[in-house]
Amino acid sequence: MSATADPADKSNPAHRLGFEAGQIVQELGYDEDCDQELREGIEEITGEELVDEDYDDVADGVLLWHREEDGDLTDVLVDALEYLAEGGLIWLLTPKTGRDGHVEPHEIAEAAKTAGLAHTSSVSLAKDWSGTRLASPKSAKTGGKR
Does the structure show a pLDDT above 60 at 9? Predict the structure, then answer.
């Protein structure tokens, strides 16, 4: 039996992100308000620990926690691209409507477009967090890594 969780396990909220075993996921914007269950779920699926902003290699995906007060979203997205392997995805996690730090959908769409990213889907991932899947135009056309 594998030490990692079955990626088809629908009870794991991270399943909806599409990460696979062996992938490296870089986490940016971590703070104490981040959803631990989601973070642990990603590690179960990939079999790898999340890496932080000090990671000095490319990552297969970026998990970006962002709140309204965290600064300019376009700048943060452009910075996140620096760490991303070709074909990789950025999952932008923002507080849900009505929660402190909520970011309006039109602000996400505008920042993504300015950063050269395509908004491909949005999902409710945790009690307090929504996720927006962002891809470079090349990976958006090809479906990206899944």
Answer: no
Could you tell me the pTM of the whole model?
A: 0.86
With residue 142 as reference, give the H or E element that holds it: helix 137-142
Q: What tens digit of pLDDT does each residue of 92-115 get?
A: 999 999 999 999 999 999 999 999
Rg from Cα positions in the chain: 14
Question: Which residue shows structure tokens 């290699």?
Answer: 57
- Kindly report the length of the chain: 146
Q: Are strands 25-28 and 59-65 parallel, antiparallel or unpaired?
A: parallel
Instruction: Please answer whether residues 2 and 26 qualify as being in contact, where contact means their C-beta atoms are separated by less than 8 angstroms.
Output: no
**Phi and psi torsions of 102, nearest 5°:** -55, 140
Residue partners of 111: CB distance under 8 A and separation at least 6:
72, 73, 74, 77
Beta strands in the chain (DSSP E): 25-28, 59-65, 84-95, 118-124, 129-135
